């Protein structure tokens, strides 16, 4: 792990969840309207459920996704559905949620519409990220044809459509919408949540390597000291 990024290691999921909630409260304690950007996956679910019960000015907050599989909310792979059944199951339901998925046939066809939605959001106070075993974060897959354009900090759009490569990580969910490096660069704070010794080791290797070597390293380079890593030791 480089000196640029703060790393907090935990031996219990309960302790990590409590720390995440406390740091999120601080990050979201702003007088102006703000945006919270959210990732899917299993790692942040306990944190989302706990944070959603907190006494925060939810009605003055916007929520949006970091990325989304191009499926409707009744599909098991929908990140929108995950956020709504965890974070937004309680008081946080008062927040305004901006979806990525539209009625368009492909994410590329919807990119202009969703980009306009994201440009209209208040500046993100906090973004929640994860990392896959292939080092992807958001839906930044290194083998995707759109990867270079999507992951650069000076991308033209805030969001973009992407065709993920077929792999055990992507499964059948190949069509994605994701934020770009330009949107990531706007975030005031960022939490990366990882679980398991293998992922901790993988992340350390990525962050010591050149930024261009992996998607997570590119994201970390864009965020710099704004990125805080919360890692759970053990088997995850």
Question: Can you characterise this structure?
Answer:
The chain has one domain (6-27, 34-52, 60-232): 3-Layer(aba) Sandwich (Rossmann fold), CATH 3.40.50. It has 236 residues and is α/β, with parallel strands linked by helices. A seven-stranded parallel β-sheet has the order 1-10-9-6-2-3-5, sandwiched between helices. The protein has a three-stranded antiparallel β-sheet with strand order 4-8-7. 31% of the residues lie in helices and 21% in strands. α1 (13-27) crosses α2. The model has no long low-confidence stretch (mean pLDDT 95). β2 (34-38), α2 and β3 (61-65) form a beta-alpha-beta unit.
How does the SSE layout of this entry go?
Blueprint lengths: L5 E5 L2 H15 L6 E5 L6 H7 L9 E5 L1 E3 L9 H7 L10 E3 L8 H13 L4 E6 L17 H5 L7 E5 L11 E5 L1 H6 L2 E7 L1 H12 L6 H9 L3 E6 L4
Parallel strand pairs: 1-10, 2-3, 2-6, 3-5, 6-9, 9-10
Antiparallel strand pairs: 4-8, 7-8
Count of structural domains = 1
Average of pLDDT:
95
Sheet-strand content, in percent, reads 15-25%
Largest sheet: 7 strands, parallel
CATH T-level topology: Rossmann fold
Query: What is the number of strand segments?
Result: 10
Given helix and strand content, the structural type is alpha/beta
Helix % is: 25-40%
Structure annotation, total helices: 8
Shape field: globular
How many whole angstroms does the radius of gyration measure? 16 Å
User: What is the annotated CATH architecture?
Assistant: 3-Layer(aba) Sandwich
């Amino acid at each position: 792990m480089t000196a640029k990024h703060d790393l907090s290691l935990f031996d219990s999921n309960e302790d990590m969840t409590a720390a995440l909630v406390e740091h999120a409260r601080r990050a979201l304690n702003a007088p102006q309207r703000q945006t919270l950007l959210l990732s899917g996956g299993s790692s942040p679910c306990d944190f989302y459920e706990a944070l959603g019960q907190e006494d925060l000015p939810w009605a003055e907050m916007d929520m949006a996704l970091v990325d989304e599989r191009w499926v409707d909310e009744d599909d098991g792979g929908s990140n929108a559905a995950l956020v709504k059944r965890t974070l937004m199951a309680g008081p946080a339901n008062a927040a305004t949620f901006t979806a990525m998925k539209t009625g368009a046939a492909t994410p590329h066809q919807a990119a202009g519409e969703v980009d306009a939605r994201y440009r209209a959001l208040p500046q993100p106070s906090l973004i929640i990220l994860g990392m896959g075993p292939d080092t992807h974060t958001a839906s930044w897959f290194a083998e995707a044809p759109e990867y270079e354009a999507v992951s650069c900090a000076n991308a033209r759009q805030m969001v973009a459509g992407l065709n993920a490569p077929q792999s055990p990580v992507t499964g059948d969910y190949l069509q994605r919408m994701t934020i770009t490096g330009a949107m990531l660069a706007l975030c005031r704070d960022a939490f990366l949540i990882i679980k398991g010794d293998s992922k901790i080791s993988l992340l350390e290797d990525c962050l010591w390597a050149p930024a261009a070597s992996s998607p997570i390293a590119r994201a970390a380079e864009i965020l710099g000291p704004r990125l805080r890593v919360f890692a759970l030791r053990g088997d995850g």
